Amino acid sequence: MSPTTEKNVKIAVRGLKKSFGANEVLKGIDVDIAEGEVVCVIGPSGSGKSTFLRCLNKLEDITAGSVTVNGFDLTEPKVDLNAVRQNIGMVFQHFNLFPHMSVIQNIMLAPVELKKKDKPGAREQAMELLRRVGLAEKADARPASLSGGQKQRVAIARALAMNPGIMLFDEATSALDPEMVGEVLQVIRDLAAEGMTMVVVTHEMGFAREVADRVIFMDGGVICEQGRPEDVFGNPQQPRLQDFLAKVL
Ligand code: ADP
Ligand code: MG
């Protein structure tokens, strides 16, 4: 657990491999993600995007290689995974809000239970987060009464309540009706503008092109191509990326 000396690197992935049984899903990933960088990950279904993201906070056991986050090597047996995970917010395709709690209770839960934050302080911070995602008036509503886009914005606010230094998004807009995609992307866009370090798996190519500092194209468990969005989308080199873009653009 030695802090990294490269102060700018938030996430360092080296030779990452992940197998499920005989199925090698990640075949050796090497990537550094810098503080404040917004990395969008694109690629066909089944290419290992979600598995890669889940390895970044060790929701998956790592078969080989290493993942270092904020200087902590997640593959070291003694690493404090809870401490590492508290600094990484994750938002999934499905919102997983607690249905029996109000919106604000959903957001206050982790700071109160995990960080032992006092309730008035947690409530104040939760209200501030709800204002940020444009949902202050929904504080006392139940999740069931919200639209999909509103639920996903609450899920983002809930992740931000732990004050993470890194946010991971796994197809956060894929389950939404089209008219709700924009409001969720706007929240992610605002986070990017505020300098949040983010890894965003997305099917929204326009969004990736606009917001990403770097786009990573995964195919078959490897990073097939990566670069600035204008290069990846405007001048793709690998035939597999050219084929993929021809299908999705
Ligand atoms: P993507 O997010 O790019 O669609 P995934 O990372 O979800 O890809 O999946 C990559 C491959 O890993 C798929 O073949 C999938 O079936 C397999 N896989 C993912 N999770 C598991 C799991 N928990 N058990 C077994 N196989 C899995
Ligand atoms: Mg996926």
From TrEMBL:
Q: Which residues cross the membrane?
A: none
Q: Cell wall biogenesis/degradation: is it a keyword of this entry?
A: no
Carries keyword Transferase?
no
Domain ABC transporter: residue ranges? 11-245
InterPro entries membership:
AAA+_ATPase, ABC_ATPase_HisP-typ, ABC_transporter-like_ATP-bd, ABC_transporter-like_CS, MetN_ABC_transporter-like, P-loop_NTPase
One Pfam family linked to the record: ABC_tran
Q: Which UniProt keywords apply?
A: ATP-binding, Nucleotide-binding, Transport
CDD domains in alphabetical order: ABC_HisP_GlnQ
Domain of life of the native organism: Bacteria
Molecular-function GO terms, alphabetical: ATP binding
Name this protein carries in UniProt: Polar amino acid transport system ATP-binding protein
The species is Arthrobacter stackebrandtii
